[in-house]
From TrEMBL:
SMART domains: TBC
Superkingdom of this protein's organism: Eukaryota
Protein name per its UniProtKB record: Rab-GAP TBC domain-containing protein
Annotated stretches, region: Disordered: 1-25
Classification via InterPro entries: Rab-GAP-TBC_dom (IPR000195), Rab-GAP_TBC_sf (IPR035969)
Pfam families in alphabetical order: RabGAP-TBC (PF00566)
Domain Rab-GAP TBC: 81-340
Any one GO molecular function term: GTPase activator activity
Length: 454
């Protein structure tokens, strides 16, 4: 088996005296299995003194009471990402888990409340499927489509988990004559083995997941999330989003809440129906952007029956996880989140009324330059141009920038959609995250300028 979670996920180097780190040194925080080294993209990101947010800078950003200088933190992250030693802690703020204007004591209380809440939800799931929390996980179906337990070769229900929908043993967990609850439970049970199959495939090149307990933790977090999200449940691709949280945050409950906050941004991407796919709205936005900034390329793609931009589905679905090395994808995410940061994000997520997110994010627009610095660069540009409420994700402009850089090749060589897919597939491992984000901001600026004219 592989190493324990703590020893693999964090190589405590004391970022107090951070030096310029090579990509090889950063890779050592998330070691790759030797037999997989030739199969993973090369890491391009390097931590740099004066640019990357170091452990020393991170600690200095807090006041004595615990208030965080979010403007200074955002500035540093946007310049050079986050050092691995503090990545998880910083992500919790970027994703809206905590309010920068809260104290150490307030955050400790909130963290404890969330851990207790997660434990309660996990216990609820465990009553139905005992394998949850056992350090094991499921990769075979435990119930049939009609809710009947599926037995293993020895005649026993798989992993003792396949209780029937209205099992007498689960009277506490299952309200009597509750059709909606029964349907929810069945759909959840049917998803558990798919989660397990995806867990086995997720970041399998990393030493971290040689340890079955770490795989089981990822499965537990996704299983509990699927149980709590009545609308969407689990959809393939979520494991790619969740895995870094499990690796970065040593407490499982903290990883869950970080993932839950990330999904607040992304869950619409996973909302599929018989008539549409989850990322449809983003693909439509992408089409509009390319049509505006590069009409010739858009027309060419339309002639190839690619006007719906389905070839960009994977990039948007899992935020470029497949196009970059593990280290580079984390860097890409945190810089994007920093650029998109809105200081109202915590209060918007914490609002019990659950109004439209845009109503809360933009109902208190900043009037002074100091407050404006608490917004990320991308979000700040949106506020200045009056386009904030459109809420277009930076990732969409990132895809547009990739298409822009491939303009000449796509125009010359793409004779069909297969060619488009092949050309875009060539970017895997060959894309510089920093340059790609810079290009995305340029495309955004160009798009807003053109849109304003029309």
């Amino acid at each position: 088996m592989g190493n324990s979670k703590s020893s693999v996920a964090f190589k405590k180097d004391g970022g107090r005296a951070m030096k310029n780190s090579s990509s090889e040194e950063l890779d050592s925080y998330y070691p790759v299995r030797p037999e997989c080294l030739a199969d993973v993209p090369k890491t391009r990101f390097k931590a740099r003194v004066g640019k990357t947010l170091s452990e020393r800078r991170w600690k200095a950003a807090f006041s004595k009471e615990g208030y965080l200088d979010i403007a200074g933190v955002l500035r540093r992250i946007q310049r050079g990402g986050i050092h691995p030693s503090i990545k998880g802690a910083a992500w919790e703020f970027l994703l809206g888990c905590f309010d920068p204007e809260s104290t150490f004591e307030e955050r400790n209380q909130l963290r404890q409340q969330r851990r207790e809440q997660y434990a309660a939800w996990k216990s609820e799931c465990q009553k139905i499927v005992p394998v949850i929390g056992s350090g094991k996980f499921i990769t075979s179906a435990i119930v049939s489509d009609d809710g009947q337990p599926i037995a293993s070769e020895d005649g026993q229900p798989i992993e003792s988990a396949a209780t029937t929908i209205n099992s007498q043993d689960n009277n506490d967990a299952v309200p009597a004559d509750n059709g909606d609850y029964d349907k929810k439970m069945l759909q959840w049970k049917l998803s558990l083995h798919q989660i397990g199959l995806d867990v086995v495939r997720t970041d399998r090149t990393l030493v971290f997941y040689e340890n079955e307990a770490n795989q089981a933790e990822l499965w537990d977090v996704l299983a509990v999330y699927a149980w709590m999200d009545n609308d969407i449940g689990y959809v393939q691709g979520m494991s790619d989003i969740c895995s870094p949280m499990v690796i970065l945050l040593e407490n499982e409950a903290d990883a869950y809440w970080c993932f839950e906050r990330a999904m607040r941004r992304l869950r619409e991407n996973f909302k599929c129906s018989t008539n549409s796919i989850g990322v449809q709205s983003q693909l439509s936005t992408l089409a509009q952007i390319v049509k505006t900034v590069d009409p010739k390329l858009h027309q060419h793609l339309e002639e190839l029956d690619g006007g719906e931009y389905l070839f960009a589905f994977r990039m948007l679905m899992v935020l470029f996880r497949r196009e970059f090395s593990f280290v580079d994808s984390l860097y890409l995410w945190e810089v994007m989140w920093a650029m998109e940061y809105n200081p109202n994000i915590y209060s918007s997520y914490d609002d019990k009324r659950r109004p439209l997110l845009s109503e809360l994010l933009y109902d208190d627009k900043p009037n002074d330059k100091h407050k404006l610095k608490e917004y990320g660069k991308f979000e700040r540009n949106n506020l200045k141009t009056g386009a904030a409420e459109q809420n277009s994700a930076l990732s969409v402009f990132l895809v547009a920038s990739v298409l822009e850089t491939k303009h000449r090749q796509l125009m010359k060589e793409a004779k069909g959609l297969d060619d488009v897919v092949q050309i875009l597939g060539e970017i895997s491992g060959n894309l510089d995250a920093r340059k790609a984000l810079d290009e995305a901001l340029k495309v955004h600026k160009k798009y807003m300028k053109q849109a304003k004219k029309s």
